[in-house]
Amino acid sequence: MTVQRSRSRRVPFTLLTLIGQRLLAGLLMLLVVSAIIFTGIQLLPGNPASAILGQTATPQAVAALNQQLGLDQPAIGRWFGWLSGVLQGDFGRSFSTREPIGPVLAERLSNSLALAGLTALFAVPLSLLVGFTCARWQGRWPDRLLNLFTRSTVSLPEFFSGYLLIAVFAIGLAWLPSNSSVSSGMSAGDRLLAMALPCLTLTLAVLGHMSNMTRAALVNAQNAAWVDTALLKGLSPGAVLFRHVLPNAWGPIINVMVINLAWLMVGVVIVENVFVYPGLGQYLVDSISKRDMPVIQDCALLLAAIYILLNLLADVVALLANPRLLHGR
Questions:
Q1: Contact assessment for residue 46 and residue 31, using Cβ atoms and an 8 Å cutoff
Q2: Domain coordinates of the chain in residue numbers?
Q3: Residues 6 or more apart from 76 whose CB is under 8 A from it?
Q4: Model pTM?
Q5: CA torsion sign, 122 to 123 to 128 to 130?
Q6: CATH code matching the domain that covers 99-322, chosen among 3.30.1360.40, 3.20.20.70, 1.10.3720.10, 3.60.15.10
Q7: Which of 189, 204, 233, 317 gives 20 to 30 Å between its CA and that of 261?
Q8: What is the pLDDT of residues 7-35, one digit of tens each?
Q9: Whole-angstrom Cα distance, residue 161 to residue 201?
């Protein structure tokens, strides 16, 4: 009893220590990512001031705009200035509109989170259902048919499946709109209707990987010796799967689910552009075409931060699902 109590007291401390270490590593990684983002944007050909003023701009006008935008300052100083502003909640001003980036960034981020959340609401239960079905009838026709479908969805790029869905549901059947523009004044029904096609595209993009990993985790747990013992005791395969196999496979299943949700926030960049959805990805691509450097930097850094945080969440969930990982054995 004393040994068990001492272990239960050490586990939360160890978990908090690991979370602190991962947070520190994530902050250091964000620092490196910010340097890579800033350096990559500086290496792009052309001049943002020239892109804003157009081809007819005089050298004097370009020089004046460079000074106004602070582009005549040393690069290292602009990098530190950008990071210090972000830490204080100031994301700077857009080069093209000269308006604060923060409010627009918050609105676009909320739209992207809504799309990713709606996708997860459908993709996670569907992936679990497909994975359970494949594991339950391993090697039989349901397993083979669903494997064919999921592997086909994995092989399709997001932009191709998006255009294919537009051709079928928007042009052919005229059931759903091809333009997914949403606004604050829209009703909930209209908003969900506009988000249907990009949500379906993202669901197909993550369904194959999540369901295949779920199947692999369940099949791996089914190969244990105690499963044969449970079957010999007279338990049905379905009961063994849900009552005994599933609890032992939750760790890797939840881990891959959270990792795919982290991918969703990065994968929306392509899908949002296909459907003209006003999210963070569309904002990023529009800013790249305009050479709007502060917006590009803020969007890229925010996407990197979300990805790092969700990967941290995946690690924590995996540790909670399998506390033995805390002891390194």
A1: no
A2: 99-322
A3: none
A4: 0.78
A5: positive
A6: 1.10.3720.10
A7: 189
A8: 444 445 576 777 788 888 888 888 888 88
A9: 6
